[in-house]
Write a structure and sequence with these properties.
Keywords: Membrane, Transmembrane, Transmembrane helix, Transport. With about 425 residues, the chain is mainly alpha-helical. The chain is built from eleven helices and three strands, in the order αααααββαβααααα. The protein is about 55% helix and about 5% strand. It has a three-stranded mixed β-sheet with strand order 1-2-3. Helix 2 packs antiparallel against helix 3 (about 90-120), helix 3 (about 90-120) runs antiparallel to helix 4 (about 130-160) and helix 8 runs antiparallel to helix 9 (about 325-345).
Length: about 425
């Protein structure tokens, strides 16, 4: 019903793709689990473990099955090509699904034939038949790697991610050259609304302009912007003032930390969050060192049973060794957590700040839930390895985070300040 769901399609497409991606990843994880179990059983079978009640099942690959697989591969290739020719997010997701099916079918067919011939003894050694479940694991990992970016992309679009700088520059040029009555562009906002963009532009008109002419300028500019293929809806706000009170928008006259610019420091949000991961990795590494010192100090060392009532309960080491750990953790919170809150709030559109902030805070709840998984290892003498593992994991996740999101580390000054917009940009600069 278009009366109640005006923009249903632009939101429904990303939701459907996210659900499809999650289903594909969940199915792939199940295949990985079954593949690992099959590999373990095959290893036990080939080692001839006594009492091992497992018989290697045959792999029946006959000409009919091979023919069906080949026909399926050809059909999937054709469907993938047809889907790629339609430039919509849904068809792109279907094209990626068909492409993954082609890769999976080819690999499964080749490895299945090799495994079947190895079991029948036509290929030596016979242990080569384990390649069949291994290829299932590899294919599943490939599918997960292909679908995770789809989940990330469409969740970003649903939460109102900022439009690319090319679109903002194009909108700036259109607004400047729309009418000679446009004196100045005060603010330009453009953000994702599902698969398309919502655009808001604040233009400054002469103080003595007739109301009818002003309305005509605004409506005609909205229609011109909505004619762009990626724009869902445009809103033009008319004003005659020269001040901008919206400090949270991606506006043309915003200045981002002038003191930092004077020092020529460009410490972007994603880089700051990455530094937070690195610093917390150092904090856990230092904590592991302190724990090693505790286990290396008497009188109890790493002796885990409870001491007698008259024995000294703690080792002879000062608590001051823990100060650097708390200091580094506090620094990492400033880099990662505070920057994340700032980034989530400033990059979200006005109408979606509550949703985006709720999603960000939800990650803290997920982290608290995951901490329960570490309860079994928070006992002596496992603490040393727990802190060491946390240090390694934090460092690796920090690197993965930066590699994955470094392209989103946008400069807040990617749109020129208001002073530079006094002269309209040239079309060749867009």
């Amino acid at each position: 019903d278009k009366v109640y769901f005006t923009f249903l399609r632009t939101r429904l497409e990303p939701i459907i793709i996210i659900i499809l991606s999650i289903v594909m990843c969940a199915a792939s994880f199940q295949v990985i689990f079954e593949g690992v179990r099959s590999v373990i059983e095959d290893i036990g079978y080939f080692r001839n473990v006594s009492g091992y009640a497992y018989e290697k099942p045959p792999i029946d690959i006959n000409p009919a099955a091979i023919s069906i697989m080949c026909i399926t591969i050809v059909i999937k290739i054709v469907l993938s090509i047809l889907c790629y020719r339609v430039s919509t997010p849904t068809m792109s997701a279907l094209a990626a699904d068909h492409r993954n099916d082609v890769v999976a079918a080819i690999v499964a067919l080749v490895f299945g034939i090799i495994g079947s011939k190895a079991i029948d003894g036509e290929i030596k050694p016979k242990e080569l038949s384990v390649i069949d479940p291994v290829d299932a694991i590899v294919i599943s990992l490939y599918i997960i790697i292909c679908w995770i970016p789809q989940i990330r992309l469409h969740i970003r679009n649903l939460t109102g991610y900022t439009a690319p700088s090319q679109l903002l520059q194009q909108l700036t040029w259109i607004a400047f050259h729309h009418s000679p009555l446009v004196r100045k562009i005060d603010t330009i906002r453009a953000y994702h609304f599902g698969t398309h963009f919502l655009v808001e532009i604040d233009v400054l008109l002469p103080n003595d302009l007739h109301l009818g002419k002003a309305v005509h300028v605004g409506i005609s500019l909205e229609q011109k912007i909505e004619a762009l293929p990626d724009v869902e809806r445009a809103f033009v706000h008319l004003n005659c003032e020269t001040t901008n009170n919206n400090a949270n928008s991606n506006s043309c006259n915003i200045t981002d930390n002038q003191d930092r610019q004077r020092l020529n420091i460009n410490f972007k949000p994603i880089l700051r969050i990455t530094c937070g991961f690195i610093v917390v990795s150092l904090a856990m590494a230092w904590t592991a060192i302190v724990q090693h010192l505790i286990y290396s100090t008497g009188p109890n060392y790493s002796f885990t049973p409870k001491p007698c009532s008259k024995c000294q309960k703690f080792n002879n080491i000062t608590v001051a060794w823990q100060i650097p750990s708390y200091f580094l953790i506090a620094i990492s919170e400033i880099f990662a957590n505070i920057t994340g809150l700032e980034y989530a709030f400033t990059q979200a559109p006005t109408s979606m700040k509550s949703i985006v902030m709720s999603l960000y805070v939800f990650t803290s709840a997920v982290g608290s839930a995951l901490s329960f998984a570490l309860i079994p290892v928070t006992v002596d003498p496992k603490l040393l390895w727990m802190y060491t593992s946390l240090s390694i994991v934090a460092f690796v996740i920090g690197i993965i985070f930066y590699v994955t999101f470094r392209n989103d580390d946008i400069d807040q000054n990617r749109v020129a300040p208001e002073e530079t917009l006094a002269d309209p940009p040239k079309q060749g600069d867009i």
